[in-house]
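Task: encode each sequence below as structure tokens.

Item 1
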Amino acid sequence: MAPLDHERYCAAVIAETTALREALHGADLARQVPTCPDWTLHELAAHVGQAHRWADAMVRARASDELPDDAAHVPGYEPGPGAAALDTWLADGAAALAAALRAAGPEAPVWTWAGPHRAGFWARRMAVETLVHRADAALTAGRPYVTDGDLAADGIDEWLGLLSDPEQAAKDPDLAGLLGVGRTLHLHATDVPGAEWLVTGGPGHVEVRREHTKADVAVRGTLTDLLLVMQRRLPADSDRLALFGDRTLFDHWLDRTRWG
């Protein structure tokens, strides 16, 4: 499916960061994040803020090559000590990124790790990145997690688009392992009519279509829960999902997309 409007992504970067900050308020920032077990809540928040600043620096510079993701190359890379400083740092970074993306417009040439090599890639990627990591924070802090339907659907579209990109499969053995002879996965949102995906592992590439049809394995749930299970933030055996068909095939898809 076509991406959302560029301004929708820019606004979502700010809105999702605001919701992330709200999930962090009053939480123990030293608590480990179960869905990202190598990180504490503070480290999760720092990762999001650093990703915003890294993308911001590349968009502002119209970088033609990857900018190193570190304090030596990215202004304001590290937050100050304490929860209040972290909160302000997150807000400022999101606002600066959104401003840079708006000024650039979606078609400005910028280095990206997948196509298209335009600023619009970073608008979408950072909106979805923040949306998903907000789930990590909310689940860790015991807070509710609700998404806007269009962003949840777009997050699924982006994930499927990346894994179906032949260039990505060519350089990632895990993604190449999804190729096959027609094994199919069907995702069916129960809360939005027409929000369905058919994913086929063909001999040369993964094909994605918006279609209602039978498949080797089908997963039904709300858009939010489909996004979470695809991003491995919700267990495949959760009672919030209904799974039909070949469970081992679904596990195979999840295992091969841990980059997502």
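Item 2
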Amino acid sequence: MQGPVKAIGLMSGTSLDGVDVALIETDGESVAAFGPDMTLAYDAADRALLIQALEEARGLTDRDARPGILAEAERRLTERHAQALAAYFEAYPEHRDVAAIGFHGQTVLHRPDIRLTVQIGDGPALARAAHALTDAPGPALVYDLRAADVAAGGQGAPLVPAYHRALARGLDLPGPLLVLNLGGVANITYLDGEAEPVACDTGPANALIDDFMKARTGMPLDRDGTAAAAGRVDEGALARLLDHPFFARRPPKSLDRNDFREWVAAHGELDAMSVEDGAAILTALTAACVGAVLAHLPRRPATLIAAGGGARNPTLLRFLRARLGIAVLTADEVGWSGDALEAQAFAFLAVRALKGLPLSFPTTTGVPLPMPGGVVLPPHPAA
């Protein structure tokens, strides 16, 4: 593979919003061009099925097992990804010559402490769908991108730092730079010149807020942080939540979507709070988690770039600025796509996987050596 190629990334994140589709042109080292992106939103039935799958997966010990609802969830998820690709190529037929597709799947369990991470999604089935939608010979499809890292003793997350580093080379901002992805879980990439990036999950983000709002109001999220903005942060309860041992651990470290659910239930006293106060404390927790990781970084960052769904929450951005005391910009403000960034990253990682380049590093996931990864399904067998 010589020079930049067209690559598509498909991302279904811990917020369970839908399938993000994004195209870039890349050689796996830098980004030559950005293509269009779109999202196929999950409906209520999709979200309910995936939430059931998350519950069912808590008892998994075999990453290939699909008991009960997990098999149905995997079929539905793969269908939705195929539909997202079909919608994308209908809207942008000029990109049917795509060379690579990165398919993240849906994480339903992440337990690197026992070397187990499970992403549902049928790679071969999606590859067949992709070949039917694209120009011959069709794209190579890369999936299961976390497994090799976890099997080697790494955290398996976050995987996006290699892409953040490629993007950051085009910026002229005061450093060190902190890139913060606010999905269901929050994660950071710390970038300081040519030093190796440092990365980790920092704590809960949208997942706890979304689950709280769904349980208390029936709404899937706190849109624009409106409820949190009207609430009061109980600093005593927040301090109890920050006493979780995860925050004292140095990077690399990672989380499962539901790791903090029981802790918050036991120590947050949210049941006694109004909707507004509960949303406020969970939003403040997300910001405070980022603040807690600063002490573990080589130097204090000068600039933070926020991406992901949480970057559209002005209340969360306000809390971040107040608690961190550093400049906070959004991905869109620096010319990146805040909504498509993770999908773009998996397009980038797919090309790196095809070239045998590492996806993760000792400073980003704790893996012993720079680690390639991903299962590669080649272009259509007839090619």
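Check on item 2: Residues 69-91 form the longest helix (23 residues). DSSP finds 13 helices and 13 strands in the chain.
End of task.
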